[in-house]
Structure formats: C-alpha cells, structure tokens
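Lab meeting notes turned into a lecture example. A postdoc, R.K., suggested we walk through two folding results consecutively so the class can see how the record format repeats. The first protein's sequence and structure tokens come next.
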Amino acid sequence: MARPADPHARAALFAAARAEFVKKGLRGARIEDITAACGLSKGAFYLHAASKEALFGELVGEFTSAMNVLVERRIQEMERFHAEHGALEARDVAERSERYELMVEMNTEADLGTLELMWAYRDVVHVLMRGSQGTEFESLMWGLVDREVTRVAQEFQRLQADRVSRADVPPTVIGSLIVGTYVLLAQQMSQMEHKPDLAEWARSIHRLIREGSLPPRPVARKTSPRKPQARALSRPRSTSRS
C-alpha cells in the first residue's frame, strides 16, 4: 500500500518549489535543490507530484481557477448592477451621481480582489512571464492577458455605447492599457518583500482609468465681442481767404 502524503510536507515542498522556480526558472530548477530546501527526500517529492512541471502546473491551475472566479463574479455583479440600477447615463458621470459612485465602489472592490490574488501568486506570475520559456507554460500568461484585454474592451465598448466613456479611443487600446498596468504591477510585486497598500493601489488605478476615460465635457464656444464700428473721420474743410 502506498504511503499517504503528509499535508505539512506538501505545503513545505510547494513553498520551496515556488522559491526555486523564481530563482532559476522552471527549466533551471532542480528537484534535489527543492527537496533540500525543505528538508525532504527526493522520494518524498514524488509522493506529491509526478514532476516539477506537474507541480508548477498545479500552482498555475490554482491561480487561473481563482482568477476565473473573480472574473465571473465581476461579470455577474455588473449584470446585477444594471438590473437593479439601470445603465449609467452621461448625466450620472457629469454629476457624480449616487449611481455612478456605486459603480465606482463596486469596480474598486473588484480591482482590489484582483490585486490580492496577484500578490498571493506573485511568484507564479513572475515565472509565467519570465521563467517559463521553453516549456508548455511559456505562452499561457499572454493567453490570459489577451482574454482580459478582450473582456475589458467589451466592457468599455458598452460604456461608450451608453455615452459614459470617451468615444475617441478604441476599446482595445483602453483594454491593453488597463491589463498592461496590472501586468507591470505583478512584476513589481514579485520583487517586493513587504505587501504594499493594495487598497490604495486599487483606488489609484481606478481613479486614473475612470477619470482618464470619461467623455470630455462640452466646451462652450466663445464668441468674440464685436468691435465697435469706427466712425469715419472727416477731414476739416480748408477755408480759403480772399
């Protein structure tokens, strides 16, 4: 009968593997270095994973599953918002109405959830971006990025149709800008030892994105004052002396 795997050993093994993957990349990491870092034997490794690629695949699966849950929750909350409050109108944006502020709060909370997940898996995201070349995972991160760009672009296309987002920028450009910001922040997180104020990050991201994508306010046309018509100066008559 196969010996059952120790859950505490599994946690230690996965933590050591994550650190090793960040240092050396997926191809450069060695099983013996992973097990040495957590005090386990090489045989103990195979009680928990068939290979280092399979172990990393489990970590990626956890991350992508959690990300999919957040995306689906965000879509559902947006649909529920529209069902309960109706679509935003240009007047809501201009007046910063209660409905607009509810939308901002909802999206900021969703942004925070994404940042929290990225912080928890910052090492995995780092390896996907920089340490998975030559493996089956090398294009996975960019597939996720492309999917998110499409989703965000569709969201802004809807806002543009409701005239609550500026229409002079293609939705794909906005989607690329937003998702690209998250990718760069994920890279910064992988180099941090202490957790930043993610709530402030979420507020700042949302503030910059929303304020920058608002439709421009109509500018009143200035009418130049009419210049008073100058009177024609009459030359004084010359008087001839006889």
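The second example is placed directly after the first for contrast:
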Amino acid sequence: MDDWKEITKGGVTVKVKGKPVIIKRKETVPRVWAVNKVSGELVGEKDPQNRPSMLERLKRGGVGRRHDDHLKTVGRLDIPTEGLILVTNDGNFARDLELPSNKIHRVYRARIFGSLRRNQLMRIRNGFSGFQPMKVEVERRHKATRESSNTWIKITATEGQNRQIRKVFQSLGMSVTRLIRISYGDYQLHSIPPGLAIPVPWKPVANQKRKGSLFKKKIKHHEAKNQETASVKWTRGFQSS
C-alpha cells in the first residue's frame, strides 16, 4: 500500500501515490479579552453553590463562541472585588502572567476603613506575614470620626495570593470596604463598562513593560516614557467576541 501517514511537528504528513503532502494542524490563535468584573460575581464556573459566574455569563454572551475557544481566566478576583480580569484561550499565556517569578504588576484602588499610619505603610512596603512587598500610595482621605477614617489608596503587587490585600490590612486592624483592580501588566481597565468584555491584543510577557521590581532606585527618562506608553489598546469598540 503506497498511501501512509505520520505525525510531524507541523502537522500530518500523508503520502498520496508516493508523493508526500503535509496537512497542517489547526493552530489556536491567542485571543485575549479585558473584562470589568462586577462585585458579587464568582470568577470561575460550575459553582456547587450556584452563585453568579462571570465566566459562564461571558460565554452565554458569546465570548469565544465564534472560534470555539476554551476560556481561561488569568488569576482570580474574589466575589466582592471589582475591576480588570483577563480572559484568554491561551493556557500558556495565562500561566506566564500568573507566575510570581515574572513579577507582573497588578494595580488596585482600595478604600480602607481604619486609621492608616505611616509605620503601617512602611510595613506593607517592606513585606510581612508571608506577603511580598507592595507599593502603596495614599490618594485621599475622608475623615469619618476622630478615631477612624476612610482612605483611598493605590496598591501595586507582583503576586496574586488569595485575598492578599484584604488579609494584609486586616492584620493591621483595618478593613477593605471596596477593592478595584485597575491594571494587570500592560493591560488597563480604562473606561470598560461594568460587566463588559473587550477584545485586546495578545502581548507576551517578554514584551510587557509593567513587570519586575517595584522599588527601583532610579528610572531613566526613556524607561519612564516606555512605562507610560505600555498600555495595551483595545482592538475594537464595545463588542463581546
């Protein structure tokens, strides 16, 4: 029998009448969506408690359906947390973004209830209780009483432990009353409406600017400019797939 086939790296090689013909395998095109998760949603799917699922809602809305994509979220946000979460059909891309060794910057805005002192800020910046150092900037304070206040802060972390920001402030005697992730690596929340998924370009970790140490001694002018222009732009308007 003259016809035979063998598996090659690029696809299947088939011999027809003694002549080799290569049939390429269908390759998965990396696709990424930036989603503005709303408070009250579970990120994952198939919840035994039947709580609202962000991923299932997106699938029902058509995200990934056109290409029959298997969707995976990049990391997690707990149920009360809002803001940016990335969804992709590329498992390797998701793992690269999640790896602590890659030090991808995750930026949050948090409203803190309690007395926030300078020495507590320094503890967060230095790292404690098993958590890596985080960059913390006070945005504004709203005085409630003499004993307590509400403070909006911006936090940058390079790891994504479960409920880490809430746990850090709880250990300092404060509570996080609202938490919004505004960026992940070079991907930004911008003005994505709550609940919506926006297609964005795939940008491998090696090409992303917002990663690495949070406390560099000095950033050169051209490096600072690159940091400012590193944001990944939307590929098209407010469409779900």
